[in-house]
Amino acid sequence: MNNADMARVLIIGSGIGGLSVGIILAKLGFDVTVVEKNRQPGGMLRSYVRQGVHCNVGLHYMGALDEGQVLRRCFDYLGITADLPLMRMGGDGPVDRYLFDDDSLGVDSFDVPVGFETYEANLRTAFPDQHRQIDGLMAMLRRSGCQFDQLDFLYSEKPAEYWFEEAEPLGGVFERLGCSPGLRAVFGVPSVLIGVPPAVCPQFYHTMALASYLFSAWRLASNGTHMADVCARRLASLGGQIRTGDAVARIRTTDGSVRGVTLASGDIIDADLVIGAIHPKQIVGLLAPESLKPSYRRRIAALTDTGGMAAVHALVPADRHPAIAHNLFAIQTDAAGDTRDLIYVQLRSSERPDQNLLSLITSGHETLWDRWQQTISGRRGDEYLQTKMDFAHRLIAQAEKITGPLSGVRLLDVSTPLTIRDWVNSPNGSAYGVMRSTRQLSAALLNRTSLRGLFLAGQSVMAPGVLGTIIGSLATVQFIVGPERFRKEVRI
């Protein structure tokens, strides 16, 4: 296709995946419409407001945003950098502080700084008998970090599958190098943060997450809603449209090709291309059974997803609990050093000058919410609300082991995997969508489908997080316009 074709593109879902792929295609001359079931665009990128305070859902900090670095180049290409108020992390201290509960690891805390050299120095100080192992890990990290920074897999003649299928699992790297449980525990945390246990996490995905924060780390000085609105306005400035408050009920097809969608309202929108920027299983559910090959439908249905997450947001008095410039992680490990569970802790300023916002995120604890699986948000009853409150108080008590005693805590909100499930149509409330494990790498490169004109975007198609999702959007656009045009016109 060329610009003169003005192909009509319909994008389902307005998270960072749907918005970024829409912006890119609009820049290339496509006629773009985004359809969002919720009243406002943004998906998990968007924050929500409780008592006048924004609570972020999926956006807490970002990496590689310094001048010339990969996410900054992506933001610059999208045309959103100037409108995002960014705060640099790690200038006077760490970006992340890991705190471990197992004394046998030989390390009770570890600071993740900005910079590969400083990170390596911290590893060597913490593990003075592991120099050979650290040599191997850092060589892998620097090599993959360079490939990822240059986006080689998008601009190389080799297909994207080559870069990912060649990836050794991180757990295998640990075994091959003979890493101690303590070193495994420290180095392996980023894989857990993207929802993949080290034993089955391709090292490329792990190093993409870790390297991005070593390049540089940033928080938004505003909130996720601001970033969602910046992206939505940018799409509108390019001629794109966003239709909110109306879900896609059916993807229309004829003779093996997409023709558009039917909305829940009954409206029909014709399109030459449809891009599903929600979970692939939900996209398959929008298609008539005869429109997809049974083998493709089975392939998508069999995909393993990442787990859910639960979050607590609360206000604490700013004079008693000053904001913390870095992130805290309370980490529970097994004997081998692999993470069993963790609590992410962020304490930062809020819209209320006298109150700081305490945000705690942990695994979904799915069994707690099983009895409400058949309910919808806002209609789960008093017992569910009480269970959430009890969970919140237990989580705060656990967090106090690393923050110290917290006084004057005022709960704002508690979210569970059911919250995520209902908000963004993620099966079982999966926080990061399809798991990019070594067991299903080929199956998880999902940008293309078996139906002509139907493509996928979003965090499930390649990698999670803002950066991983935008890279997935770039890969989807490459499949749509072809490698030659992509290399000519999409320069990141």
What low-confidence regions span 5 or more consecutive residues with pLDDT below 50? none
Mean pLDDT: 93
Supply the number of helical segments.
Answer: 17
* CA gyration radius, whole angstroms: 22 Å
Q: Per CATH, what is the topology of the largest domain?
A: FAD/NAD(P)-binding domain
Beta strands, count:
20
General form: globular
What percentage of amino acids are in beta strands?
A: 15-25%
Looking at CATH, the homologous superfamily of the largest domain is FAD/NAD(P)-binding domain
**For this structure, what is the CATH class of the largest domain?**
Alpha Beta
Structure description:
It is a single chain. This protein folds into 3 domains: 3-85 and 222-304 and 433-489, FAD/NAD(P)-binding domain, CATH 3.50.50.60; 115-217, no CATH class; 309-363 and 365-415, no CATH class. The protein is 37% helix and 22% strand. It is built from 17 helices and 20 strands. It has helices at 16-27, 70-78, 116-126, 131-150, 152-155, 160-165, 170-177, 181-193, 203-215, 224-237, 280-285, 294-301, 382-403, 417-424, 441-444, 465-481, 483-489, and strands at 8-12, 31-36, 48-50, 53-55, 62-63, 86-89, 96-100, 109-112, 217-220, 241-244, 248-254, 257-263, 268-270, 273-276, 309-317, 327-333, 339-349, 355-363, 410-415, 454-456. A 7-stranded mixed beta sheet has the order 8-7-16-17-18-15-19. A 5-stranded parallel beta sheet has the order 10-2-1-14-20, with helices on one face. β3 (48-50) and β4 form a beta hairpin. α1 (16-27) packs parallel to α10 (224-237) and α8 packs across α9. 51% of the residues are buried.
